[in-house]
Specification:
Elements: E1 8-10, H1 12-23, H2 29-32, H3 39-42, E2 48-50, H4 51-65, H5 70-75, H6 84-92, H7 96-106, E3 114-120, E4 124-131, H8 137-159, E5 166-170, E6 186-190, E7 198-203, H9 204-207, H10 216-233, H11 239-248, H12 257-263, H13 268-277, H14 282-299, H15 304-310, H16 316-327
Parallel strand pairs: 5-6
Antiparallel strand pairs: 1-2, 3-4, 4-7, 5-7
Helix pairs in contact: 6-7, 6-10, 11-14, 12-13, 15-16
Length: 350
């Protein structure tokens, strides 16, 4: 059942996923049970699916197959025409740089799960893709894989034989990282960066090179239709859930309020106001996530010192005191099933 305020994703990509699963003889009925994904809806290019339903579908798929790389398989199969009017706009763009700028502007038409920025300097054109909505870890892995491989496919289709070697940095330390060797032009690094997301860097010479199918008339029509659709899909996300997810998935210490606000192109005061409107605050969420991450790491059998450093503490004693204040228990005696008290912000690493 969809939840109140649930954002919606285009169903067409999940239709492609189910086609892929059927071809590999994965049982579909148990995956879509209760999710309103009948054949008629899957064939409707305008149909949408709540993010909560998509999240459920992906978690079921991982549980049923034991695989986390289905997003990779989906992304490599997508083509420019898979993205409807936006795909045609990218194809009609005068340069790769214009295509990437257009992609960053209208990316929420493809999926609102990530935000995209395009930047350029003297040497590179850079796409930054950062999660924009709260989702489970399995769903985040799926979308990270699908977006990384779809970007590779789109740029490869635009440039053809001119496709360059480029840098692909992924914040998640993916368990199936060896699959990225299939992206022949990508130099991949994993576990890079402080927060969940991707960074893609292309040589500036190719960013400014003309595209062979540039068409000013077709581009104008595509941009006009994209803008109309874009206005309809803009809506605020679930801010507290997003902040929790970004802290949960961060590498090392937690991102600051300023870091997260910058990601959303907001002031820290505005982000804090959104959190307060949802009945919480940054310090409360940070304290809760520290304990959750600590419990998960301790349950893996990691030493207390290792956990402390992973969470950004300077030493084990500071972490132990903060953990005891938050939970009433000692981290060395914590088990996965132990019930913990609601934590406070005291003792968090600064």
């Amino acid at each position: 059942m969809a939840t109140q305020g649930d954002r919606e994703l285009p169903v067409r990509y999940f239709g492609r996923l189910l086609e892929l699963l059927q071809a590999q003889r994965v049982r579909i009925d148990t995956l879509v049970d209760g999710l309103n994904l009948d054949a008629a809806r899957l064939q409707n290019p305008e149909a949408m699916i709540p993010l909560s339903h998509a999240d459920t579908l992906i978690q079921r798929l991982v549980d049923q197959t034991g695989r986390q790389d289905w997003g990779f398989d989906l992304g490599v199969r997508l083509r420019l025409t898979s993205h409807l009017i936006l795909g045609y706009g990218l194809l009609a763009s005068p340069t790769l740089g214009h295509s990437l700028q257009m992609l960053s502007r209208y990316f929420s038409m493809l999926t609102p799960t990530f935000r995209v920025q395009f930047r350029r300097d003297a040497q590179h054109g850079v796409l930054l893709l950062v999660p924009a909505l709260p989702m489970s870890h399995e769903c985040l892995v799926f979308h990270t894989d699908a977006i990384a491989t779809a970007v590779d496919a789109v740029v490869g289709e635009l440039l053809g034989e001119r496709m360059p070697r480029y840098d692909l940095d992924i914040a998640l330390d993916l368990p199936h990282r060896e699959r990225y060797a299939e992206l022949r032009h990508a130099r991949c690094r994993f576990g890079v960066g402080d927060m969940a997301g991707l960074r893609v860097r292309f040589p500036i010479a190719l960013v400014d090179a003309p595209l062979s199918l540039a068409d000013a008339g077709a581009l104008k029509v595509a941009e006009s239709r994209c803008e109309a659709t874009f206005r309809r899909v803009i809506a605020s996300g679930q801010v507290a859930g997003w902040v929790r997810m970004m802290m949960r998935e961060a590498n090392g210490g937690l991102p600051s309020l300023d870091d997260l606000a910058h990601t959303l192109n907001l002031s820290s005061r505005t982000l804090d106001r959104h959190l307060k409107a949802e009945g919480t605050g940054f310090r409360q969420l940070a304290a809760e996530v520290v304990v959750e991450r600590a419990q998960a790491l301790l349950a893996q059998g990691l030493p207390v010192t290792t956990v402390a450093l992973e969470l950004g503490y300077t030493d084990a004693s500071n972490f132990t005191r903060a953990f005891r204040r938050a939970t009433g228990g000692c981290p060395s005696r914590t088990t996965d099933g132990q019930r913990q008290a609601t934590p406070t912000a005291a003792g968090r690493p600064g």
